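Data availability (excerpt). All sequences and predicted token strings are deposited with the supplementary files. A representative entry, MYO10 protein, is shown inline so that the format can be inspected without opening the archive.
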Amino acid sequence: MVLRGYVPTSEETLQTLAALRLQSLNSDFSTHAPFPRLEELFPPHVLHARLPPPPHQPPTKCRGARLRAGLLAGGLWGQALAKQRAERDQRLRGRLREEGASTMAAIVEKWKLLQGMGRPEAMAAYVALVREWPGFGSTLFDVDLHAVRPRPGVVQGQPSQRATLTPVSLQSPVGSAPQRLWLSIGAKAVSLYKPGEPEPLDSFCYGRISSFGASDSSTFRLSVEDRDLLFETSQVDEIAQLLNTYLASAGAQR
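Structure token line:
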């Protein structure tokens, strides 16, 4: 979860977690100790996030401009653009190597401070840090919240017509596009997180979930009290199976 970026925390804490992993793997620091690759210790997306975004390419305004651009792209201008892109990519790779070396150096310095810590102690400290995130122990799925609609017959206690599917935010009344979220399924609740945010947007204990299922092969519906939440995901079956397991467990404990 840590390396996949599913534990939102500071870079300082991520470096400490990497140092604890090195301590558990290799014991005390030594220049002769085998070093895992950085991506086996530290989430790669954190380093990539430090790089500058690619330059914005303004769209061509008319057919004639697009035609001229296409003709130029096939000649010297296209070669110049390709050279510029290659040089930019080389600079970004160099910058990424520098960021990686700097991060590894910081991890090693933290590793040196752990001298004398045994493997079980290092593992326990690692888990204790990760457990500080409220979503620890849950299974996370990348989903797009496509729509939230009132459930027929439960809005203000009166029958209602089926609502038109409109992408909406959990926080604001209307959104312009699906939201990328983490759907967190744990032993006690289902939660929704903005990627990288430590606190959930909303959480639903299993007693609040009235039904769920697949609307189609890529759309999952979760009915919570007076709302139907529709998610676009490639893991419809996996989500349904896990929810079935936890709901059955929650029902057995009542």
